[in-house]
Amino acid sequence: MNMRYYPDPALRIKSSSIESIDKYIRRVIREMKDTMILEEGIGLAANQVGITKRIIIVDFLDKKEALINPRIIEHSAEKEKGMEGCLSFPGLQVNIERHKSLTISYINEDGMEETRELQGLNAIAIQHEIDHLNGKLIIDYMAPRERLEYNLRVNSKEL
Ligand code: CO
Fold it and tell me: DSSP string spanning 5-64?
Protein backbone atom coordinates (compact mmCIF):
# COMPACT_ATOMS: atom_id res chain seq x y z
CA MET A 1 0.00 0.00 0.00
CA ASN A 2 1.58 3.27 -1.12
CA MET A 3 0.77 6.70 0.26
CA ARG A 4 -0.58 9.10 -2.35
CA TYR A 5 0.74 12.62 -2.18
CA TYR A 6 -0.76 15.79 -3.57
CA PRO A 7 -1.39 16.30 -6.53
CA ASP A 8 -2.17 12.59 -7.03
CA PRO A 9 -5.59 12.44 -8.79
CA ALA A 10 -6.92 9.77 -6.34
CA LEU A 11 -7.06 12.50 -3.67
CA ARG A 12 -9.69 14.41 -5.70
CA ILE A 13 -12.06 11.51 -6.32
CA LYS A 14 -15.36 11.35 -4.45
CA SER A 15 -15.21 7.88 -2.91
CA SER A 16 -18.05 5.39 -3.28
CA SER A 17 -20.05 3.78 -0.46
CA ILE A 18 -19.38 0.22 0.61
CA GLU A 19 -22.21 -2.26 0.14
CA SER A 20 -20.80 -5.21 2.04
CA ILE A 21 -17.74 -5.95 4.14
CA ASP A 22 -16.12 -8.83 2.29
CA LYS A 23 -12.66 -10.36 2.48
CA TYR A 24 -11.19 -7.68 0.25
CA ILE A 25 -12.52 -4.82 2.42
CA ARG A 26 -11.25 -6.53 5.58
CA ARG A 27 -7.80 -6.79 4.02
CA VAL A 28 -7.89 -3.13 2.99
CA ILE A 29 -8.75 -2.19 6.60
CA ARG A 30 -5.85 -4.24 8.02
CA GLU A 31 -3.38 -2.77 5.55
CA MET A 32 -4.64 0.78 6.14
CA LYS A 33 -4.08 0.37 9.89
CA ASP A 34 -0.52 -0.86 9.28
CA THR A 35 0.12 2.04 6.90
CA MET A 36 -1.16 4.56 9.42
CA ILE A 37 1.12 3.17 12.13
CA LEU A 38 4.09 3.23 9.75
CA GLU A 39 3.37 6.82 8.67
CA GLU A 40 2.64 7.90 12.27
CA GLY A 41 -0.68 9.47 11.32
CA ILE A 42 -3.76 9.96 13.50
CA GLY A 43 -6.19 9.44 10.62
CA LEU A 44 -6.18 7.94 7.14
CA ALA A 45 -8.74 7.87 4.34
CA ALA A 46 -8.73 5.04 1.79
CA ASN A 47 -8.12 7.31 -1.23
CA GLN A 48 -4.84 8.38 0.41
CA VAL A 49 -3.65 4.87 -0.42
CA GLY A 50 -5.37 4.85 -3.81
CA ILE A 51 -8.61 3.06 -2.86
CA THR A 52 -11.63 5.23 -3.62
CA LYS A 53 -14.05 3.67 -1.14
CA ARG A 54 -15.62 5.23 1.94
CA ILE A 55 -13.33 3.85 4.65
CA ILE A 56 -11.40 5.89 7.19
CA ILE A 57 -9.10 4.81 10.00
CA VAL A 58 -9.00 6.98 13.10
CA ASP A 59 -7.20 6.79 16.38
CA PHE A 60 -9.85 6.88 19.15
CA LEU A 61 -8.19 6.80 22.58
CA ASP A 62 -5.15 5.03 21.13
CA LYS A 63 -7.26 2.35 19.54
CA LYS A 64 -7.26 2.33 15.75
CA GLU A 65 -10.73 1.87 14.39
CA ALA A 66 -12.11 1.57 10.88
CA LEU A 67 -15.25 3.59 10.13
CA ILE A 68 -17.15 2.59 7.01
CA ASN A 69 -19.50 4.99 5.18
CA PRO A 70 -19.11 7.58 7.97
CA ARG A 71 -21.43 10.59 7.97
CA ILE A 72 -22.05 13.56 10.20
CA ILE A 73 -25.67 13.52 11.35
CA GLU A 74 -25.45 16.48 13.73
CA HIS A 75 -22.90 19.15 14.58
CA SER A 76 -22.49 22.06 16.95
CA ALA A 77 -23.00 25.56 15.57
CA GLU A 78 -19.89 26.51 17.47
CA LYS A 79 -16.64 26.29 15.53
CA GLU A 80 -13.00 26.44 16.43
CA LYS A 81 -9.84 27.10 14.43
CA GLY A 82 -6.74 24.97 14.64
CA MET A 83 -3.66 23.96 12.67
CA GLU A 84 -3.96 20.72 10.71
CA GLY A 85 -1.45 18.63 8.84
CA CYS A 86 -2.08 15.76 6.42
CA LEU A 87 -0.02 12.71 5.45
CA SER A 88 -0.62 13.57 1.77
CA PHE A 89 0.97 17.03 2.25
CA PRO A 90 4.31 16.49 4.02
CA GLY A 91 5.38 19.59 5.92
CA LEU A 92 2.21 21.64 5.28
CA GLN A 93 0.08 23.03 8.13
CA VAL A 94 -3.16 24.88 7.48
CA ASN A 95 -5.36 26.81 9.92
CA ILE A 96 -8.87 25.36 9.52
CA GLU A 97 -12.17 26.14 11.20
CA ARG A 98 -14.17 23.05 12.23
CA HIS A 99 -17.31 22.27 14.21
CA LYS A 100 -16.41 21.73 17.87
CA SER A 101 -18.58 18.67 18.39
CA LEU A 102 -20.33 16.15 16.19
CA THR A 103 -22.61 13.16 16.14
CA ILE A 104 -21.58 10.66 13.49
CA SER A 105 -22.98 7.40 12.26
CA TYR A 106 -21.02 4.70 10.46
CA ILE A 107 -20.69 0.96 9.95
CA ASN A 108 -18.07 -0.64 12.17
CA GLU A 109 -15.66 -3.41 11.20
CA ASP A 110 -18.19 -6.05 12.26
CA GLY A 111 -20.79 -4.61 9.91
CA MET A 112 -22.87 -3.01 12.68
CA GLU A 113 -24.32 0.49 12.44
CA GLU A 114 -23.01 2.75 15.22
CA THR A 115 -23.64 6.31 16.37
CA ARG A 116 -21.10 8.29 18.32
CA GLU A 117 -20.63 11.74 19.80
CA LEU A 118 -17.24 13.34 19.38
CA GLN A 119 -15.43 16.46 20.43
CA GLY A 120 -11.95 17.95 20.47
CA LEU A 121 -9.29 16.23 18.39
CA ASN A 122 -11.56 13.31 17.49
CA ALA A 123 -14.17 15.69 16.03
CA ILE A 124 -11.49 17.51 14.03
CA ALA A 125 -9.99 14.26 12.73
CA ILE A 126 -13.37 12.96 11.52
CA GLN A 127 -14.16 16.21 9.67
CA HIS A 128 -10.71 16.06 8.04
CA GLU A 129 -11.13 12.41 6.97
CA ILE A 130 -14.70 12.83 5.67
CA ASP A 131 -13.40 15.74 3.58
CA HIS A 132 -10.92 13.27 2.03
CA LEU A 133 -13.76 10.90 1.08
CA ASN A 134 -15.39 13.82 -0.75
CA GLY A 135 -12.17 14.78 -2.53
CA LYS A 136 -11.66 17.87 -0.37
CA LEU A 137 -8.16 18.71 0.87
CA ILE A 138 -6.50 21.00 3.40
CA ILE A 139 -5.20 23.34 0.67
CA ASP A 140 -8.83 24.12 -0.22
CA TYR A 141 -9.01 26.02 3.09
CA MET A 142 -6.00 28.21 2.31
CA ALA A 143 -6.36 31.78 1.09
CA PRO A 144 -6.30 31.85 -2.75
CA ARG A 145 -2.91 33.54 -2.89
CA GLU A 146 -1.25 31.08 -0.49
CA ARG A 147 -2.82 28.19 -2.37
CA LEU A 148 -1.49 29.52 -5.66
CA GLU A 149 2.00 29.86 -4.20
CA TYR A 150 1.85 26.35 -2.77
CA ASN A 151 0.75 24.91 -6.12
CA LEU A 152 3.55 26.75 -7.92
CA ARG A 153 6.06 25.24 -5.49
CA VAL A 154 4.60 21.74 -5.93
CA ASN A 155 4.63 22.10 -9.72
CA SER A 156 8.22 23.30 -9.78
CA LYS A 157 9.11 20.29 -7.61
CA GLU A 158 10.57 22.40 -4.85
CA LEU A 159 8.72 20.21 -2.34
CO1 CO B 1 -5.39 14.19 5.44
Answer: -TT-GGGGS-PBPPS---HHHHHHHHHHHHHHHHHT-SEEEGGGGT--BSEEEEEETTEE
